[in-house]
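writing this on my phone so excuse typos. first protein, seq and then structure
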Amino acid sequence: MIDADRILEAALRMSAAAAAKDAELQSAMAPAMQDKAIADRRRFLKPGERLHLERTFDDDDKLPIRYLDLGFVAARSVCRIYVPDPQTAGEASGFLIAPGLLMTNHHVLPTFDHAAASAATFDAEEDRFGRLRAPHPFALDPQTLYVNDEALDFAIVAVADVSPTGAHIADFGWLPLFADTGKITDHSCATLIHHPRGQPKQVTLRGNKIIVYKYDMPGAPDPANNFLYYTADTEEGSSGAPVFNDQWFVVALHRQAIAKTATDPGSGQPVVLKKDGTPALIGDPDDQIDWVANEGVRISRILVQLRELGAAAGPFAAAATAALGKIQANAGNPLAGAVPLARTPAKAATFSAPFELVRRDLSHFSGATGHDLDFLGLKVEFPIPNADVAREIALAKNGDKILHYEHFSIQMNARRRMPIWTMVDIDGKKVAAHGDRPGWSYDPRIDEQFQPDDRIFSPGQSRARAFDRGHMVRQLDPVWGKPAIAARAQVHTFCLTNVCPQEHGFNDKEWGDLEDHILSTTIAAGERCIVITGPIFQFDDPLIGDLLKGGPREDVPMPDIRVPRRFFKVVAWRDDSKGPLKAAGFVREQTDEIASKPFFEKMVIGAPSSSSARSPTSKPRSGSVSLGLLRSTRSPTPADGTCRC
């Protein structure tokens, strides 16, 4: 539904700007203004680009290939905004202009209360395969900073540091803003990145020329010259999008479309026209209006207005000064490029909820030696995967095949994004008290593409998530020795490298009972043992997306991760320091727990275990333990009775 008065006002403003532009071109000052425009433009071009400045004014559409690369970086800072207003609820666009600081239109966030109730979602877009990425919604934080201006239709608001999904706002960078003119010229391109109608992020690259841009007189900027006019496809929801030049400098804040107008012969008043040439009426749908251009607020004028608001004694004085200071402090040098490729490092966050995701830095893992080969007084080497699995080992960033933590080690499968095996040393004589449950973290030593995608675990704050993050090395197993070492070991178990998806009832009961049995037996005996744990990968393990069909997360894109149905544990120990090496093997299944579909509607928490699963107190299998994945460098003597580790 159109707002005829607003559209008419904008159309008349564009007509006045076009008339002023014509007058500018005919004035005696035109050559001097053209020279000034070229000089200003050179300040935002790299030396090689300055040699071809004439292409800025002509219709030469060739661009260096890095244009696409920089565009992807710039797009990271653009978000979709949802405003839950009872009368005008809807979605718009916005973008980060400094670390943790967002800009959109005044008409999107007209008040403090609107900002406090709204959210900004980043990564609401498709990847190169056409699949939706996992979105990261951030709360807006007007209590920290909020400033708006109705005349220039902008609003600036702070954003929460961390989203409910565990993402950090610092990871999405920002788009530097510069007060100098010269970022764009007549007839150059105006590219938009936006969320039209709240859809996944889109870019307008074609048919997007600046059609009216009146240059400022040298030394005398025109206070009425606050807007740019351009042809670029937009829709409702594009409001608040950044408008870029060909070097990805932000030149304007997009605000609205401009319609064709005419003088009504009866009243002599200007009216908005529909595509059929008749006057538009209040309530006519948007698609019937004859749209001719779009209007954006010049960034240089917004920054000037912030300075003036800060100098005035109004309610936004302090916020405007703070916003301008943060923008200027993070703008950098325009000759270094429009997009800062080096982002602010994400801050470590403390979470009250145990299932939030954090990112720990390398210092949390330095010096960890992992499994001690001589822990039992004779060498127990790391498992060696067979040839098929060895081809799928995920290498750490330094080229290592094994990740070492306090008292345990892990080898990752690159394709399945889970451990091939974990190996933990447990000392029953030196058990230490454990601390509060720490937050989960990626391991920074290995690419996140080789670690589980956390979307399969955390749909939100609800306990009824898709799957538990099932520990392979139980959080209490390596917690022994000196307090500082024990505490670090517990934190290390909360890495996603130590995780496989496990149905909650299976993880809490059947798998948990086995873990309890091994640890309690080891402590009671006051001995040491080594536990090797991992999933048993099968080619027909179900895809996570298939298991969620029919549930509330069916429409949430899931990665192509298969859920293991079976898991193994091999426990090795000696009854005394000189006794033979003994071992017990256990296999547990979650087949029954994940067999029913749809997963959320028919899942039974704590369902009876499969008949093929073994009780935690049953005797270990005699003879060699064959898991199809591992072969040991030493053949342990099988145990003859219940596990006495």
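second protein below, same order as before
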Amino acid sequence: MTTGIRAAWQETYLGGSPDAERLAFARMAVKIMQTQVKNRKAAGGAVVAGFQAKVTFAVDDAELRFLDLPAELRVGFAQPGAVYRTSVRFSNAEGRILSDHEPDLRGAGLRVHVSGDEQHDLLMTSAPVAHARDARQFTEFALATGGGGVGRYLGLVKLVFVLGPAETIRMVRNVQAGRKKAASVATETYWSRTPITWGEETALQYLLRPLDARAAGNPPADDPDFLGHEMHQRLAEGKASFELCVQRFRNQRETPIEDAAVDWRSPSAPPEPIAVLTIRAGSQDSPQARDLRLNPWNTTDDFRPLGNLNRVRKAAYDASSAHRNRERWITDVPLRNRVASAAMRNIFGLVNRFRPWHRLPTSLSLLNLAALRDVLRRENLIDTEVREAPPRVRPVPEKAQNRNVRTHDGTENDLSEPSMGAVGAAFGRNVPGIRGSDEPNPITVSRQLLHRESFKPATTLNILAAAWIQFQVHDWVVHARHPLGVDDVRVPLPPDVPGWRNTPGGPLEPEMRIGGNISQGVGADGHELLFGNVASHWWDGSEVYGNTNANTLRDGAKLRLTPEGYLPVDVHGSEITGFNEAWWLGLGTMHTLFAREHNVLVDELRARNPQWDDERIYQTARLIVAALIAKIHTVEWTPAILATEALDRGMHVNWYGVPAKDWLSRIGLWLTDANALHGIPKTTPDHHSAPYSLTEDFVTVYRMHPLIPDDYTFHDAATGGVLRADTFLDLQGDKADDVLRELGLANAVYSFGTAHPGAITLHNYPQALLHLEREGELVDLSVVDLVRTRARGVPRYNDFRQALHLPRIERWEDLNPDPETVRRFQEVYQNIDDVDTMVGLFAETPPDGFGFSDTAFRVFILMASRRLQSDRFLTADYRPEVYTQFGLDWIAETTMTKLIHRHCPELAAHLPADANAFAPWVRK
């Protein structure tokens, strides 16, 4: 990219493009955090700045006054005679807290306060030239030398192999030459060492040199913090002044933009003074100035930092600052875990060629799953969001506003990247997206392979499990779509289908029309279409609370309910709750239970905290309910639908950690994944290899509509007598609320608990969903599922399996053993590689005890842990200071069964307190 005087100076990107450089910088930022971890150990446990960790003196009330500038330097805030309040911070350059007597570089940072909407950070060091030529050298050297002691020398040896002996020796010599003892920070000269723009055409470096002629005395040998004390004494006697100067770009050889190891100083181009910095007499060391998080990108476009060493500083300094502020975390993985995990990945990769994980003994299958999850975390988390590349300036850095509460739109869960996982954020990928064919006709696929011909029950589950997963999916994933007639997906009808009404009462048409999803445009790869999530990606109970601060859901700290304890309805008869699309009685039951739970918590919190206002009570109750939902899903719903000992133990370990008596598992995890020993809520957030988001593939594997029965019989919980019989269509939309009130919540829960959902398999898609009226459309939801999956770029089944490290299916009989199903497959698809992913997932024979396929399970084991592990409210901020100890105890003690007993006490006789509420109840 050529900038400024078009032939004079230019920037070039590492990796050949801004986005390639951005990805490299993201990895480098993690290495800077690893440096902080090494330095934290040396500092006794405190996370300090990655660079210039020890502040020696800082003031908040200095003055920067510009001189009479030449015309070409009169840019932005730099105007003749302009005066600005300036914060000044002096520091030692080391990433460790050392005595001021140690030889070191010294640093100076300025924050020029122009207005409430504009500030400029200028960073300098007491050496005129950088030791690192570029961002890679800068990062590798910091990581190699972090922590001090013997590790520093071992790091330098490793650096020889990373950067080569010549560059390593040059860098060490440069640093050693710059490290020296200082008598006063007021008598040092500080250089920027990297350039910035100054208007549209000028590039320059800047420096700060002392105007104060007073020499410093000999520092006292017994004072490790003498630099700060000396500055305090100096200011007690008078002011301290510095001259801000600039050195202009001359040519690419003498003053290169990208090579920071070249000294810009030249006798023919001496520094030009442009301003005077004055630290007033009597100024005091300021805690606010000490705590500044300076970054050269806190500026305006007129003064944009240049060169890759500057560009990496935005990511690196932000990561370092966020790490210090407990806004971003890094998981410290012991060496034994890295070695053992690598060995496990290789061992089980070989074992699984001959024997799948679910046919191993339980302890081995758990280790196998841990190794598989490690592989998936490394290779199957794909960020699709269009990110900032190249870096952009920010006149004022963002500050987190919601440290201890969940925002409704999901912002500020990750405080270092506030928009991560928020409403509107793009769905990621677990496997690379692909634009595939529209063939075969999805209507034909559905009729031949999906339509329910006779009800196939899932006998290990009850209908509460079916309602629960829809309740959860509405919290997790919602694609925005156009209304019918705006951007329709058109599916031609097969010759034997005479016509389709796309709207109630509309004409017969020769095609199905499906409202198209609203695309966010083209992704960073230049061709993939991105789709945003209408819900937040976080596990935050948004199906109950909504994605906005809408007051229609609230009554003070409580959620609005009728006097009888049911959800209120709007003028159209729809229940008022966080999300009520695709509404039916099962959803109404779940929403009512958790709205009641919220209101009980409000009463409990208010009784314990009478001084709290409604907002704090509401937000705390909301946190507790969201975490309770996550816990129930993790340790109850999942072991019910994946009913094996391995999954039951594995999901309990996810939440609670390894039981103390299970010494074999404790030894195994100590060796392979020590961070999992105590359960995810006792760890810190870890996004692993990509920023957090839910994925298009996650949406695909949670297409579980076969769980929905077509026919229902409702019983009186007290007598067992039949109250009514209905079809699904009698229980959906605005009819659901009337039925729930007629039955009563207890009878609805009892009837769902004693009946089976459908099995997730072929030929079991509900008839009721094949001609469903939804928001003015008539849809065949089975066709919609196929069309949506294809349109969103999910690969076909065999490619999907291969991307998830499973072997491709070569024979139809290996996909499904039923001869009639094989015949239909061969009739519908030209070859086995054309099979739609959803169809293939339904066709698989699941492992014993599983309610869905092993292929779908690959996405599940990756994303189930990720939804917990990435969320700070389920990890680092899962603590009494946020939830209250009462809240944490409530979550720990409440199961789905106990929650049902709390709100439907008459059901206690039907459901033992220690029973899984999602397993079939015994009808009495």
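DSSP finds 28 helices and 23 strands in the chain. thats all i got for now
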